[in-house]
Amino acid sequence: MFKGSGVAIVTPFRDDQIDFQKLEELLEWHVEEGTDAIIICGTTGEASTMSLEEQQQAIKFTVEKINNRIPVIAGTGSNNTKSSIELSKYSEEVGVDGLLIVTPYYNKTTQAGLIKHYTTIADNVSIPIIIYNVPGRTGLNILPSTIAELSKHPNIRGVKEASGDIAQVAEIARLCPEDFYIYSGNDDMIVPLLALGGVGVISVVANILPQDTHNMVQYFLDGDIKASKELQLKMKPLIDALFIEVNPIPVREAMNILGMEVGPCRLPLVPMGETNKNKLIEEMSLYGMNIGGK
Hints:
It is globular, with a radius of gyration of 18 Å. It is α/β, with parallel strands linked by helices. The mean pLDDT is 97. It has 12 helices and 10 strands. It has helices at 20-33, 52-66, 81-94, 111-123, 135-138, 144-150, 166-175, 190-195, 210-221, 225-241, 249-257, 274-287; strands at 4-8, 13-14, 17-18, 37-40, 72-75, 98-102, 129-133, 156-161, 181-184, 200-203. Helix 1 (20-33) crosses helix 2 (52-66), helix 6 (144-150) runs parallel beside helix 7 (166-175) and helix 11 crosses helix 12 (274-287). The strands form 2 sheets. Strands 1-4-5-6-7-8-9-10 form an 8-stranded parallel beta barrel, surrounded by 5 helices. The protein has a two-stranded antiparallel ribbon with strand order 2-3. It has one domain: TIM Barrel, CATH 3.20.20.
């Protein structure tokens, strides 16, 4: 587990293949910039369009290159419990520090099914699991009472909360033990979630502002609430622009605008529309980013 800013890292592509040289560059940059953890093969990494072999390669490569300098957390969620177990076990074998497991999507399930899904996976590994609750994508919300029940399992150690409902976050914090880690899944709600006892963020904006995202959390944890709040408010217009189209289209566009050369999204995701791209560039410029070079 980690406290601070974990980057939901973009998977760089070149000629529709994973660009491992670029991935290594990004990993080294994040370590240098103070990122507190790497989340590989998440939503922002476009794991849903990667083959099982590609996911395994990316996870293993990241573990090897990071080499225990900061935690590596692998996205191993699926709407097929058996498949999630298989990728989770593989990830544990190659040395990840934890797992990020999204709620089942499309077929979904009941709250009782969620408890069975997560506990079955947790019974098959011995490393920490972070539940990923993002009902806007999955069509399924994990109720706070369900998260509280899951927190009793020794391997289920935290939740990435991306419901956008701050009252729900408060209820999770109220019901779960103090050593259950709550991470923001929304870059525009980092400080409010920290105020309710959260310990960090699994971030999209950290792909382009790793140091500022780290600092926002660290300021808060160190007691400098004013500095943390100021960073949150300063970043808000840029964060909004990063979600003007479905994630990760804008953040990948932003990285390419900065000269980071991470390649295009995979279908069904397509490049940003020109109007939205111009808005993104405007907000990046207003933030003071160096357009055209990292």
